[in-house]
Design goal:
heterodimer; A: mainly alpha; MetI-like fold; 12 helices; about 80% helix; flat; B: alpha+beta; Rossmann fold; OB fold (Dihydrolipoamide Acetyltransferase, E2P); 2 domains; five-stranded antiparallel beta sheet; 8 helices; about 30% strand; elongated
């Protein structure tokens, strides 16, 4: 029995060391630095009371949520379609969709500017059509577009792998009971893809919360937490506030991932 | 609640199926299924039986020129969701995200049946299939036999016009298969529903079918009542696929069939018969003192309790199979004299 316990501790040691060195210690340090500034622990309260910080927290979570939802809808439909219908060029299309995986955020930001910026394609088209130039690259909408673009490859492959495992007989059974294609999607396909949606969505959300490069490139009117942290740290030299914001960003993301994992765990068990 | 809906007559006219890759799954088939009848499509895998079922169900469309008629009405291009047929699959195909009761009530909820009526019907189905205490279970908590009962209940709950079963017992172990086969038989009789049953298991086909359609390579080999198929097989394929068939080769002369096992007097023998076929129950080990011209040696003997299955070597490619009810032991290599009932002889 004692031998067994020793063996388990030994096996847990690598993960334990890694967890302590790269998560527990820095997080603890960050937490205490956050309370070491001029205002002390009030820095944490300021995140909720100071409108500047609070609105950036809300908009960060908002754009991350919107990105996740939009990405899942697009990847869900495209992933199932690409898995079900093999046509000439199918492989090339999948490869193209997964292309942005390799791009740094700055490149994504640049592409958004080329599309929706002042000299962008959308601007030119809308000018020609309505006489008014539509420019949204430097706003939350631009950031949202960039995030969706680089989130799709991360989710579409997961969705395709899950779609391959869906049992076509389940859909046939639902149809035999009178379900329309829409009901089949709602009652069979979406529940079947739920575990994939949850795990892919969690990664998508976490990436969108923490992404910096794209926001930095589009800067101007964008007020998201990674940008605020950067400004506090480099321009205002308010290291304590930057630390407090980082800590909260980390905790919130971790919480969302933990909730998603629990939800995914229970659906996986239910799917048996 | 009653099962008032009138049973459905189904007709297939010139139904063929060629898949996109050019595989011919089904040769043109004309076949009528009477209202309330249980028809079993029987054959080895790839014979076209499942394709036929899927055409009837509306999961596949026949090639151009084929028609599917429900009570005379052309439903060829009607998708399955509008045909109101119940389906039961080999893999059960139960919805993992719903409970047992949720699965059974699904079709009714799709039809926007009032909650109270759904509940009553689900309770009735649970009772009929003797799974009332499983109502709130998740699907992954059920055994294979329980799952298939739920699948049957789910298919019947919506009062379908016909019940289509695709190898429903194949995934179950032998003992469970026997029990559930009996239950399905009772169910089909009590509902009086038109049922189409696909299987590769000839025992299932014999037990359940009012008529059996034996298929081979996308073609119908024979259609008939189980007894006809068994006793009067139309082709060698049918003869060998259904049950066990013994074979002797030889020549016929003056009402006597002569072969390597000896000679067999056969009054009605066709003069050209060079091969005779017969079932294990039409041959037996002769009593001592009985006059017979046939003999062989025991190659293997398996005592099964109620009978002994003997494999008797007679110099043919395959040994003869004999089901002996004699209360005695047989030893390997023992010489036995054999008696054949000429009434069971077939020439194909």
């Amino acid at each position: 029995m004692r031998h067994e316990v020793r063996r388990l501790i030994l096996l847990l040691l690598p993960a334990g060391i890694f967890f302590a060195a790269f998560f527990l210690l820095p997080m603890a340090r960050l937490f205490f630095i956050g309370g070491s500034g001029k205002t002390g622990w009030a820095a944490y309260a300021a995140i909720l009371t100071d409108m500047h910080y609070f609105s950036s927290l809300v908009s960060t979570l908002g754009v991350a949520t919107a990105t996740t939802v939009a990405t899942l809808i697009i990847s869900g439909i495209a992933g199932v379609f690409l898995q079900r219908h093999k046509f000439p060029g199918n492989g090339a299309l999948v490869a193209m969709l997964t292309f942005p995986l390799a791009f740094p955020g700055v490149v994504i930001g640049f592409m958004v500017i080329m599309l929706a910026g002042r000299q962008g394609l959308i601007g030119q088209v809308t000018q020609a059509l309505t006489g008014e130039k539509l420019v949204f690259a430097y706003t939350m909408a631009g950031l949202f577009m960039g995030y969706v673009y680089f989130s799709i490859p991360r989710t579409i492959l997961t969705v395709m792998a899950a779609a391959e495992k869906l049992d076509p007989k389940l859909e046939e059974a639902a149809r035999s009971l009178g379900a329309s294609p829409w009901r089949v999607a709602l009652d069979v396909i979406i529940p079947g893809l739920k575990p994939a949606f949850i795990s892919a969505g969690a990664i998508c959300f976490a990436t969108a919360v923490g992404a910096f490069g794209t926001a930095f490139t589009l800067a101007a009117k964008i007020n998201v937490l990674p940008m605020v942290i950067y400004t506090e740290f480099t321009l205002s030299a308010n290291i304590a506030m930057a630390a407090a914001l980082s800590f909260v960003l980390g905790i919130v993301t971790w919480l969302v991932l933990a909730i998603a994992r629990t939800a995914a765990g229970s659906t996986v068990a239910a799917a048996g | 609640m009653t099962e008032a809906s009138k049973p459905l007559a189904i007709a297939l006219e010139n139904c063929a199926k060629t898949f996109a890759d050019g595989t011919k799954a089904l040769e043109p088939l004309d076949f009528a299924i009477e209202a309330g009848e249980t028809v079993v499509f029987l054959g080895p895998s790839g014979c076209g039986k499942t394709t036929t079922l899927r055409i009837i169900a509306g999961l596949e469309e026949p090639d151009a020129g084929g028609r599917v008629l429900f009570d005379g009405e052309d439903v060829t291009h009607l998708p399955i969701e509008q045909r109101n047929v119940g389906m039961v699959f080999q893999s059960y195909a139960l919805f993992p995200n719903m409970t047992v009761a949720g699965n059974i009530g699904y079709g009714l909820r799709i039809r926007k049946t009032p909650d109270a009526a759904v509940k009553a019907r689900v309770a009735e189905m649970l009772g009929m299939m003797q799974i009332t205490k499983l109502a709130d279970r998740r699907i992954d908590q059920l055994s294979g036999g329980q799952r298939q009962r739920v699948a049957l209940a789910r298919a019947i709950a919506v009062r379908p016009r016909a019940l289509l079963l695709d190898e429903p017992l194949t995934a179950l172990d032998a003992k469970l298969r026997d029990t559930l086969r009996l239950d399905i038989d009772k169910l089909l009789r009590s509902l009086g529903i038109t049922a189409i049953y696909v299987t590769h298991d000839q025992a299932e086909a014999m037990a359940l079918g009012d008529r059996i359609v034996v298929m081979e390579h996308g073609r119908v080999a024979q259609i008939g009542k189980p007894r006809e198929i068994y006793q009067r097989p139309a082709t060698r394929f049918v003869a060998e696929f259904i049950g066990t068939m013994n074979r002797l080769t030889g020549t016929t002369k003056d009402g006597v069939f002569a072969c390597s096992a000896g000679s067999l007097p056969w009054a009605g023998a066709p003069a050209t018969a060079t091969e005779i076929l017969f079932r294990p129950e039409d041959i037996r080990v002769a009593e001592s003192g009985e006059v017979t011209g046939l003999q062989g040696t025991v190659a293997a003997a398996f005592f099964l309790g109620d009978r002994t299955r003997l494999f008797v070597e007679v110099g043919e490619a395959r040994p003869l199979v004999i089901e002996s009810t004699a209360r005695r032991d047989f030893s390997h290599g023992e010489a036995v004299r054999l008696a054949i009932d000429p009434r069971g002889l077939l020439v194909l």
